## 1
Amino acid sequence: MVFKGKRLLLGVSGGIAAYKAAELARRLVVAGAGVKVVMTRSGQEFVTPLTFQALTGQSVAGSLFGPGAQPLEHVTLGQEVDAIVLAPATANLIGKMAAGIGDDLLTTVLLAASRPVLVCPAMNSQMWRQVVVQENIGRLKARGLTVMEPEVGALACGDEGPGRLPEVERIMEALAKLVTCQDLTGQRILVTAGPTHEDLDPVRLITNRSSGKMGYALARAAWRRGAEVCLVSGPTALAAPYGVELVMVRSAQEMLATLRQRFPAASALLMAAAVSDYRPESLAVQKIKRGAEAQQFQLVQNPDILKELRSLKTNQMVVGFAAETQDLVAAGRRKLKDKDLDLIVANEVGRPDAGFAVDTNEVTLITREGDILPLPLLSKEEVAQKIMDWLAQKLAPAK
Ligand code: PMT
């Protein structure tokens, strides 16, 4: 959704990771972006322009002069797009940018560019560690360019260490931020996600069907819009969202302890976690053996986290979720009042296309003021955007 209709310039310089830029181009096009590729001469040694032309449906620009070169392209290309991504960015390209050199089409485009630039370095580990390369990286950052850290691992040259091009997924996340309105800049957003695990013995536990997808989507959406985000997550199978601080917890009590520490400094709390209301009264040290025909376990109530945090509330916006199988709005309103929330996101969890574990959700937003906004079935990413729209309006601009 974030890339739909966006115009991007992908600069490809000469490193073995250039082949991964083809996948990046493809993924961006699938996501709805128009992608114009500019290649250095060495970049074209690794992957042919034809590959990018076929993937993007646009001609590839490669030189200032000669056949195919368009007059003024070196000026206009970097000004007509929403953002520029350099992947891979070699030590040579980074050095030229730092020194202000424009001796080919890509470096000249970058000198004349007026749009945000994302630099995705990829090179041999020794090169990456060179003082001069690090100084150059520092210069680019000081000028306001976004520079990703290369990933650590096995390199094409046989070395192990930092220097791998960041995964395409992560590049897309970093790029998504550059093309998104930064209306949550300066805000500290706390998000919870996933289920809790309430242990019964060393192998058994009480939990629920939450996958964490809704909460992780909220964390990504808030980060893209400029917020500093801490995601407190129960156990999930999801990858850590790029740029977000992830704190993993297991039980409701652990989640409460973490939130007690984090909540006072937050501007908002978005409580999408499905917290277990009960836990076993005691934790058996050894695995409980099969024995009697019937077994009974005593459960005790977990703290209601949202209620517990009320005493720490100053001017934070607090958003709860209501997981309901019937009377959505009435139950949502009741919980909003009972837990003293600013917004409750009521979702029906008894259907196959909404609620737990799926990529879509159908929610109704109910505000403290009594406004009710039913939304259609949307992806969880889109639901997260709608909640961020509400939040951005509510939060005063940070000083
Ligand atoms: O993770 P997914 O698979 O993507 O699924 C998303 C979701 C269905 C889990 C999510 O959209 C959702 O509805 N989360 C809230 C689930 C829930 O616990 O609802 P509830 O109606 O029982 O609780 C109401 C609110 O109180 C929630 O914000 C909950 O986090 C909070 N709560 C609940 C129990 C408790 N002991 N302390 C709490 O603070």
## 2
Amino acid sequence: MDNRRIIVKIPASTANLGPGFDTLGMALSLYAWIDMSIADEETEIELLGNGMESIPRDKSNLLYKVAQLVFKEAGLPEQELNIAMYSDIPLTRGLGSSASAIVGALVAANALAGFPLTEQQLFTIATRLEGHPDNVGASLFGGIIVAAWDGDRVDHIRLEPPAGIDMLVAIPDFHLATEKARHALPQQYSKQDAVYNISHSSLLVAALASGRIDLIRYAMKDRVHEPYRAALIPGMSQILRDAGEHGAISTALSGAGPTLLALIESDSQRKDELERFLLDTLGNEGVEAKSVWLKPCLTGPELQWLDGPTGEISLMEWIKGEVKA
Ligand code: HSE
């Protein structure tokens, strides 16, 4: 085991990108940091940032459990750990906070153990834990990922996000558990809807892979999850229908929601108009929301080792200047 301290910076993600339900994901320029080292004595867990109050700090903590999975897989005994985490990624809003936590804990523990597991092994463990590969894949590989999971094996291709496109996310001020948003979906779909999604998701991937940005607005349309989840998010249907009239290239529900994602050209003169439209539409439905401008994040986790004099510095001290809060 490495006795140094590792800090891993992990991007948030937006899943589905419209029609690519449980398949497509994109990493975003919003981050969480996990600080991990082998403890001299007992495990200590510190969680910083909004919404962390109710998360356990004992060995039932997800970060601790995920790290132990890596040690077990590598044939190592359970380790007492010092863990600290700070996250700018809001919880249960559809921006992949749990995926970032899982990926961060896997990558940090793998580093402490001397990198026994491959990225593919980490991806498989992360997908199994999350139940779908889209968010964890984006956080692990950066950029846009196209992934297929058959319950056993997970494959992916990473695509470079198109240049010159910015993302606006409108984050409603309420939580929506992925579990609940998945329960809103039907058990069966008509052949028309299945064909609709296969064709739009395929077209979206082909458009992204070949630089046909002009096709994104036609391809980013979904009939598998967005129509059913719209009932859980007042204002969503109107935003998906009308944001194009306010400068957006396209819009989608981010993951399981409730965050809404809008794409717009980076040099568009209509960014303020689009932002107002999203916030006013939600506001008119009584939904308070916060808007954040983001870019695709092109890389996966960034690792930094701390030892010697830097070994004593607190996580917040180390990342200040980088955090949003
Ligand atoms: N693909 C998943 C869903 C993402 O839409 O339920 C959850 O973040």
